[in-house]
Design brief:
- By secondary structure, this protein is α/β, with parallel strands linked by helices.
- The protein has 4 domains: 4-215, Alpha-Beta Complex (Spore Coat Polysaccharide Biosynthesis Protein SpsA, Chain A), CATH 3.90.550; 220-329, no CATH class; 371-525, Rossmann fold (3-Layer(aba) Sandwich), CATH 3.40.50.11820; 530-708, 3-Layer(aba) Sandwich (Rossmann fold).
- Strands 1, 2, 3, 4, 5, 6, 7, 8 and 9 form a 9-stranded mixed beta sheet that branches. The chain has a 7-stranded parallel beta sheet with strand order 12-11-10-13-14-15-16, sandwiched between helices. A 7-stranded mixed beta sheet has the order 19-20-18-17-21-22-23, with helices on both faces.
- Strand 19 (606-607) and strand 20 form a beta hairpin.
Length: 735
């Protein structure tokens, strides 16, 4: 029997579930089990649970046939738990590193019925807020246990299920279950404390309580917040059934109830204005119904005034008090902002510059009607015609001929635009006009901050790779790699997205956590990879001939990624020694990251068997002509894997890259083929032909199964049909 059974329900938490499970399984204390319950989640949560269960025998997967809600899902896990203690951890939260040994030690030495642990609220902007632990217990109780009647202040700790471990037999004997509906923690957490004979407190932060930017019920408006009332009713009905033994606790419990009601009412992100009078009226009704005979400790100050207004049902006075408070707070914020807006004289004169005049032109164009036939495309910060947007553009020309596609390109990249493709040059009046009036905006990166998405416009974010390195908000934890990134600005840009195109389930999971917003995910494969699926031997031969590559030559494409944290770094690589290892029939194509497009002339290589192809516009052509890909942490590996050809992961700085830049998974442990960590090892792989070994083939097969399952040659068509034509596209409904 394990010491601790973790019950982890999962519903729409695919972006966070891996971090949650890893935080449990990576603890030094291993005397545990994890019952992970997929509550018929419509995302990939169930597949993630199955993946962990397959590789760690401590994890047990439970897949529910229908969605039952958080409380009943916890009950399902509780019924399967066999540990001495049960810890209900939500799938979007995670444990603090190395906290479990201290938790386990306290459990073993004091054997409490309930052990309360500390937590922090971890916000999406990577800030943290401490709990009320220090206020509730200015002097920590230490290892001593107590009953709630002796320390009723324990009720002032957050009333959640995940900040307490409960002895399983005590819980089973009590017969307490989670009730359905929202606020299910209320009717569990308070009764557990009231019934416990031995309560312990561990003054150590153990749980990171994630404050999600999108998707949390605490940030969702609606009438389901009225479900808080029946949850509290259950608490008082239970106290009635327990009789005089808990009567002394009624005043403190009542105070907590009114505090909780007012907290929910005061949150503008939960209760819509039109529902607030009815919610207040229900608070008043419950006040009269459950008020203890001897009264209760009414708070001081403004909070006490709120309680008295509730008691007398004075909604108008309560509402006016709240409005006055909000007006005062708004005035203070505006005053602080005004003091910070003193800028240099040059900024005040910016409207006189050419750019300022063009921005004025853009704002004027925003007042003109949206062109219902115009789609604007861009890729890689206007570097030219490329990537997923190019594939979508080509599919739209066939499937939606009534849509006029226009590309945005930099002036120095105009010569890369194919014949017949309409374009505008970035920074010109035509550019601003197109951005202001296009019906569709399609890009594989974000448009500039000044772009305002009109209600009639549709923004499609196609991305440009499956992420190995951390992205978006996750970069906050890796400041060296993030540099001077403006995360607030990033979120403003993300909020413009209507659609996010995803190549695979893994990408969807990572985009959910890196870019939290209300867009719709199109998990359809990558449009740019359609060509890799559709290209036949004749096209490969044609491309080889155009590039001067012989039919019998072994062509290796070397494509390392960019190191944001080390701008001048280049992996150790000697082209001459490499082609020597390839033998007489070997040819090497070298392609730098697109961030280096303007300094390419300084590194250009073009001799007998080595060629720099960094300036070649369509990387898909290079994939098609290459027999082997050598890369490091680039998304090129995910695209090239579609071809089912050998891939070599050359990772000479893996540990440094992982620590400084941050990664989503260990690509050296789950590689797309053979792995080399030194240049000498890389040469040996080719000298011995280990790039095609059975182990390398098996690794590639596993990699393809995980990341390339959607690549069937129709990804661009699916995007066009959904976005431009409004049709339903193929999906895989889970429930």
């Amino acid at each position: 029997m394990p010491l601790i059974s973790f019950v982890v329900p999962a519903f729409r938490v695919q972006g966070y579930l891996r971090e949650c499970l890893d935080s449990i399984l990576d603890q030094p204390e291993t005397d545990l089990e994890v019952i992970a319950v997929d509550d018929c989640s419509p995302d990939s949560s169930g597949e993630i649970i199955d993946e962990y269960a397959a590789r760690d025998q401590r994890v047990r997967s439970v897949r529910l046939p229908e969605n039952v809600g958080l409380g009943p899902a916890r009950n399902v896990g509780l019924d399967r738990a066999v540990g001495e203690y049960v810890w209900f951890l939500d799938g979007d939260d995670w444990l603090a590193p190395d906290c479990l040994p201290e938790v386990a030690e306290r459990l073993r030495t004091t054997r409490p019925d309930v052990l309360l642990v500390d937590h922090v609220r971890t916000h999406w902007n990577d800030t943290a807020t401490r709990s009320a632990m220090a206020e509730v217990f200015p002097e920590t109780p230490g290892a001593a246990t107590f009953r709630l009647g002796d320390r009723p202040e324990a009720m002032r700790l957050l009333h959640t299920a995940w900040n307490r471990l409960v002895r399983r037999e005590f819980l089973v004997d009590l017969g307490l279950r989670f009730e359905p509906g929202w606020y299910e923690d209320v009717s569990f957490s308070y009764p557990v404390l009231m019934a416990a004979q031995r309560i312990g407190v561990l003054d150590r932060v153990c749980v990171n309580y994630r404050q999600r930017r999108a998707g949390a019920i605490t940030r969702t408006r609606g009438d389901r917040h009225f479900e808080v009332f029946p949850q509290w009713h259950r608490v008082f009905h239970l106290m009635d059934s327990w009789g005089p033994a808990v009567d002394a606790l009624r005043p403190a419990v009542f105070e907590r109830m009114i505090w909780h009601y007012l907290t929910v009412l005061g949150n503008g992100q939960r209760i819509a204005p039109e529902l607030r009078p009815a919610f207040f009226a229900q608070i008043t009704a419950d006040y009269a119904r459950w008020l203890p005979d001897g009264g209760y400790p009414v708070p001081d100050g403004v909070e006490g005034i709120k309680h008295r207004l509730v008691a007398t049902g004075r909604w108008r006075t309560f509402s006016a008090l709240r409005a006055a408070s909000r007006t005062r707070d708004t005035a203070r914020r505006k005053a602080r902002t005004a003091r910070r807006r003193v800028g240099p004289a040059a900024r005040r004169g910016a409207r006189l510059t050419r750019e300022g005049l063009l921005r004025e032109y853009y704002r004027a164009e925003l007042r003109r009607p949206v062109d219902p036939t115009l789609a604007v495309y861009a890729a890689y910060w206007y570097r030219g015609y490329a990537c997923n947007p190019a594939a979508i553009y080509e599919a739209a020309r066939l499937l939606a001929p009534g849509v006029r596609g226009v590309w945005i390109v930099r002036r120095d990249r105009v010569d890369t635009v194919p014949d017949g493709v309409e374009y505008v040059v970035a920074g010109t009046p035509a550019y601003y006009r197109a951005l202001a009036r296009a019906r569709w905006l399609v890009n594989n990166v974000n448009f500039p901050d000044f772009v305002r998405k009109r209600p009639e416009q549709v923004h499609v974010q196609t991305h440009h790779g499956t992420p190995v390195k951390v992205m978006g908000l996750d970069q906050q934890r890796y400041p060296i790699g993030a540099g001077q990134m403006d995360f607030a600005g990033l979120l403003r840009r993300v909020d413009r997205w209507d659609y996010s195109v995803s190549a695979n389930s893994f990408s969807t999971q990572m985009w959910d956590r890196a870019y939290p917003a209300s867009y719709t995910t199109l998990e359809v494969g990558y449009p740019r990879n359609d060509r890799l699926v559709d290209a036949g031997p004749d096209e490969v031969r044609r491309l080889r001939a155009e590039l001067g590559l012989g039919a019998d030559e072994q062509v290796v494409l070397y494509a390392p990624t960019h190191r944001e944290h080390l701008p001048g770094y280049r992996p150790p690589f000697d082209p001459d020694r490499f082609v020597e290892a390839l033998g007489d029939s070997g040819r090497l194509l070298m392609r730098s990251h697109y961030f280096h497009d303007r300094d390419r002339h300084r590194r250009a290589v073009d001799r007998d068997r080595v060629r720099d192809v960094s300036g070649y516009q369509r990387v898909e052509d290079l994939y098609l002509v290459a027999d082997v890909l050598v890369t490091d942490y680039s998304s090129a590996m995910f695209d090239y894997a579609v071809l089912d050809r050998p891939i070599v992961l050359y990772a000479p700085d893996w540990e440094a890259y992982r620590l400084a830049r941050g990664v989503y998974f260990d690509v050296t442990a789950e590689p797309p083929g053979a792995v080399a960590t030194t240049f000498a090892d890389l040469l040996d792989l080719f000298r011995t032909d280990a790039v095609r070994s059975d182990a390398a083939v098996k690794a590639r097969e596993h990699f393809r199964g995980r990341f390339c399952g959607l690549e069937d040659g129709h990804a661009a068509e699916r995007v066009v049909r959904r976005v431009f034509l409004g049709e339903a596209v193929e999906g895989s409904p889970r429930c």
